[in-house]
Amino acid sequence: MTDLSQVLPKSLIRWLEKNNRLESKIDQLLKSGDFTDHIASFLLSSQMLEFEMIQLLQSIRIDLHELGLLAKNKDREKLPKWYSDHKAVLNSLIRTDFEKYINLHSLLIFKEIHKIIFDKNLGLVDLRNQFVHKLFFLDYTVSDLGKIASAGTKKCLEVFNLIRIYQLEVNKKLLDKLVK
Hints:
This protein is an all-alpha fold and 180 residues long. It is built from eight helices and no strands.
């Protein structure tokens, strides 16, 4: 078995370690009995999810190119402006590209991710919007907000797990190419 630290750039290893620490912290906060910790875990996990979706879009795009499902003239297609500006918005900009790519790809995992994030009234986007709008209103207690946040964090963690499943498959293909 290949030692990944010998194959992968140090910057990538540091990035992976940082993300693992953040995900671990999200999980710790969620397991806490303190509703303010649940709120913090949801805010952190939903922000991290936007970044994870950007990375997923790039992986899907590369995979679609390799499968020949994107036209050859799109091989040199520029990255979306939101990607280079670091101003991704989960419900609009990322959603548009994600839907475009999942319609080309046959993996069911993408449809499941889409359902968790974007389903009307049940999805993470709607849950996050409700949460943000309720956060500072007088009508909602910390307990109420903690329950919403807990449900949102669980959805984020579910998406993170699905993304990891896909990434493991893509990384296996990449590692196989690097080792050969």
